[in-house]
């Protein structure tokens, strides 16, 4: 070993320092090369057939809706096969009293859809048999209440949603004294909940 200088300000040769360092740390082994980072995962294959089928189904659904859009003065009417025609006739004449009512007048479409779902779920949960939904005729406000073809938006939304629900036995536009074609009376199936 080389002796250290007596004074820190004394210059030493750079080679001596390197040799001293090598002697102090000993033999050096080269580390193996680091493994390369993993390759990016391959993208999932696109489900082109499924996407095409979905697009075709949406187009078919829109086409069917366009053909069956209700106008402002059209009556909403639907009856499931298991409901006796006499009971439906009583509903149509307004002889069944509505136990609750929902007024969707002036509601934006998304809000009206959420309100209607919640209202029907609540009515069913509380065992109500008949309810009234006021959707309006769509004659006021061209932009908010009519679609591009002039059909009333909320009226068609209510008709479509009621037809899709399994807990709806029947519905019909209310008699003139109860709102006429701007409201609908809905007959709900009894809840199957066990108590």
UniProtKB/TrEMBL annotation:
Residues 1-50 are annotated as: Disordered. Residues 8-18 have a biased composition (Acidic residues). It holds the Pfam family Smr. Residues 102-189 form the Smr domain. It comes from the Bacteria. Residues 34-46 have a biased composition (Pro residues). SUPFAM superfamilies: SMR domain-like. InterPro entries: Smr_dom, Smr_dom_sf. PANTHER family: DNA ENDONUCLEASE SMRA-RELATED. This is Smr/MutS family protein. It comes from Lysobacter gummosus.
